[in-house]
Amino acid sequence: MVRKVYYNMDLKVILQRVEEHLHHRSTSGMDPTLSTSEIKSLEAINRSYKHINYIIGGNKRAFPWMTKSFKFSTVDEFTTGTVTATNGDKTIAHSATGFTAAMVGRKFKTSEDDTIYTIAYRASTSSLELDQAYVGTGGSGLTFNIYEDTYDLPPDFQELITITSPSGPSKGLKHISASELYGEKWMLSPSTPIEYTIRPTNSKDASVTAITGTNTTFTDASRTVSGSGTAFTSQLRPGDLIRANSDHVDGTESGTLWRVVESITSNTSLTLTQYWGGTTATTSNGQKLDSWLKVTLSPPPKDEKVYTVTYIRALTDLYDMRNAPEMPDYYHPALIHGALSDRYQEEDDERTDKEFGKFELWKNRIKVDFGLTHGSMRMVPRVA
């Protein structure tokens, strides 16, 4: 007798197979409200999903469907004119009219003071406010520089493979720790970056912004998101993460997970990579995840140049039963064995080792198939 192997399965089928093995009975369907056992199996499937897809090989090679690239442009250093600064005062006055709104958030330093400030507010083209009072001696006619050393990474960024610059595309920038960066390297004048460090924003929620427009509609059983008065083509781009501003409940389809934008048709219509889970929702509070990790370059960039970030993307968890795992369908059965290994271990079942062995065989098979034979698994947070 030849046992049938299931490929190209959506989440509902995978969950059914796990539950059938656990309870030795056929599962023809599932109620809209998942049972306690189904919730545990669903979480186990997602853990197996991550275990496989976050395998990284030598030289940080990853599976092709997990590897993406992203480009960002540095900004020119601004040194035109002179400024007037006063000890104990946050206000900086320009000799002409060179300050722009885009300078808010950038670094500011004068030639007579080693302190590096952040620009908090621009009052006019000739006046700005620093994040703290000026501690130097102060005076007029001071030379200065304004520069940007920190840039947003893409919202679905999970782990870096390399950062390359146009001046040395074959050689990536060198990673340094944050402690090294904020030592003497922090004082380096703008030049050509050769090193980087990655750090989180102060708060993940601080990097969430509203999707503009009157309403954004996420429709159940559809990957299409529609808007009213929205500006999808200018505000969003493929790869962005969006949601309907509702808290997600683990193990259920309640609430809104972040979903990835696949394509944008117009200002009022876009398509997601997966079905949106939950009932149809029309909201004026749709959200976009701008970034929750940033890269700081050292020395700070002096000129406008384009840098390429090659990275491993974040996987959104599978909860909507219509969605299929974002990996080649041939390997979908591996998720069943991985989930069963977890579930049997929870129940102290003797079948744990057998299922774990099958899961390891599948992992080794996929590593060999894609040349990651010396791979290691990295666990990462769920994007939700």
Q: Any overview of this molecule?
A:
The protein has 384 residues and is α+β, with helices and mostly antiparallel strands. It contains 6 helices and 24 strands. The protein has helices spanning 11-23, 36-53, 178-181, 232-235, 333-346, 352-369; strands at 55-56, 67-73, 83-86, 91-94, 107-110, 117-124, 127-130, 138-142, 144-147, 150-152, 157-164, 174-175, 195-200, 208-210, 215-218, 224-228, 241-243, 259-266, 269-272, 281-283, 287-289, 293-298, 306-313, 376-377. An 8-stranded antiparallel sheet has the order 14-21-17-18-19-16-15-20, with no helix packed on it. It has a 7-stranded antiparallel sheet with strand order 8-3-4-7-6-5-9, with no helix packed on it. Helix 1 (11-23) packs across helix 2 and helix 1 crosses helix 5 (333-346). The longest helix is centred in the N-terminal third of the chain and has 18 residues, at 36-53. The two termini are 43 Å apart. The mean pLDDT is 86.
Supply the number of helical segments. 6
Strand content: 25-35%
Helix content: 10-25%
Largest sheet report: 8 strands, antiparallel
Unreliable residue runs? none
Radius of gyration: 25 Å
Shape: elongated
Strand numbers in spatial order across the main sheet: 14-21-17-18-19-16-15-20
Q: Give the H and E element order.
A: HHEEEEEEEEEEEEHEEEEHEEEEEEEHHE
How far is the N terminus from the C terminus?
Answer: 43 Å
Question: Structural class, judged by helices and strands?
Answer: alpha+beta
The whole-number mean of residue pLDDT values reads 86
The number of strands is 24
